[in-house]
Model the fold of this input.
Amino acid sequence: MFAELNSILNVSPEHFTTGEFVLLSDRQSDASFLMHHFLGFYLRAGCQVCFIGLAQSLSHYSAVSQRLGVSLSQAKERGQLVFLEGLNECSAILNPDGVRTGSEAMAFLRNPGAGLRALFQFAHSSVNHSWGAEERAGDAGGGPPVVLVDDVSVLLSLGVSADAVLDFSHYCRATVCSQLKGNVVILLRCDREEDDYDDVGSDEGLERLLRGLTHQCSLALHVQGLPTGYCRDIHGQVEVCDRRRRADGQQKKTTFQYKVHDRGASFFAPGTSSAVL
Amino acid sequence: MADSVSSACKPSVERTPLNATSFQKKTRNKLLSIPGTRLSVQNGQLLVSTGVTSLDYLLGGGLAVGTVLLIEEDYYDSYSRMILKYFLAEGVVCRHELFLAAAQDHPNDIFQELPDPILDDVAIRKSADQPRLSCEPQDGLDAMKIAWRYQNLPKVQSALASSSRFGHYYDVSKTMEPEIRQAAKCHHFYLPEHPSQSSATHSPMLESYSALLKSIEEVICREGFNVSASMTKSRNILRIGLHSLGSPLWGDDLCCRDDPKHSHALTTFLYGLRALLRSSLSVAVVTVPSHLIQRRSLMGSIIRLCDNAIALESFKGSERKTSPLCKDYHGLLHVRQVPYLNCLASQLPDHKDLAFKIKRKQFSIERLHLPPDLSETVSRVSRAELAGAATVASACGSGNKHLDF
Done:
């Protein structure tokens, strides 16, 4: 978890808003470091976390979280974290003669046209109970449920339609955010902008999904490269868009530049990087 | 041994074989020593050499075990095929096992074309290089009478190389001796030898890709490359080379149509390949004819599913034959993606404008720069024009105008 990002978003592990749908998107960059931030943040806050990790293996997330000071294996042992390792289940499903049958949550690999109902049911059942309720009898149990998805562009690459993903996110928002008063964080990686797409239907899946998810979300963090070019010291800029309706009906949008280190990321106002000043 | 290795360095990782992957931080143990590999200095990953030393430097020291390197082919598939042969030749020299899949040529033909390794005079080469380098600053010291303040600055290194050498050099004018080649264990997959079977699932993957994936998985299980396999014998690395995936010879219509029917076949295959590689001691190099793919958005998803991605653009197929760059270099090289594995920050290359050239004994990748134009004529083709005409990976907003006066 990155301390500077916490102060930007005005949250802390002890005090954060529930019922939020956070969208992390990137263009020509990699916003996965934000996903590690949110994973560490919600684990520290004591939430019941369901992490759908499709892009990388469990040991990758464990290694990065270890550097950020959070132990995923201990969280799994005490039941706080339910981890779906997509790559692991995939090898069982794509080879049907194998002995192992993969989890039903990844059934969309066999038949992408059928949608993501099984995946949603897996996520719902994972967060529907609070962890540690039997040990901490005096306490209120675990924190609010959180579902993190890394990342949905892999789902599109595997043949799932953008409509199915939008249905999935809508169901997540309805149950996890509204009913269970939890949070949902989704990462979506987009292509670079190409103005010379002749046919409209070429990349309609990814762009349509981005527009749909941006409409549904309450907080959007968009990561992209610097508009002036590639720089080794400033890895890009983050646009934080708070889409919750405020008293004056306006949406707050701020831009920061960031640099990713070995043990975290630093965020600063544009032009105030230590490499420049 | 994989279990004890994992328990030695990460006691928190579960010991079930399903969760063991090849990405373990191997900092504290010296048990896992496979010939031809080394540990990365940045994040402790196990690295192998691609056979091209400059490419190793670009990728952060080498190719990490368990990852995929995607090479976007140049127009005539000459240089990408060359890099694939370097990769396989390096595997022969390091005594790794090889797996080669192709649909166009029989893999045995490609195996016979591997370049000859220069094994004897490696040490001689090093000592020959150093006296040359040391004598140059001497001339520089004498020459700098006006700009004497700059004489202590290091010379600009245009060739990409690190101080410690990892990998071997090859002589492309000769092919590898059959004795050396037969010492290495090679598996191959030639698509016409595998008759197509109709699959019962609705999976978007084509039969050719499923057969290939199954074949790779069989080799991994049979030869014991799984990370969770028992350590009765010494471990080795499997080098997988997949030639021209996505081309019509594999039955894929990615390159044929604007709106392909099998638009997700290759991406599903790459996801399955990534799943296989992450749980085994293997590396893969995949070449894709990206210049044939009509929908550019598909290349984005293909690149995201591979870990490392570079694109080759040779001057042979392009119309820029008369540019001054053609005399010095054979083409441009774009780094599309560099992964970050087990750490937050990736090792981004310092410069994004790179060019490559093939010399007889080396495939060198250098930082692109034009020599000073010492001719009488005023017109100078700016680098921005040349680079801007190519598809630049990042948002490189260098100006296109050059001041002509």
Summary: The radius of gyration of chain A is 19 Å. Chain A touches chain B through 64 residues (CB under 8 Å).
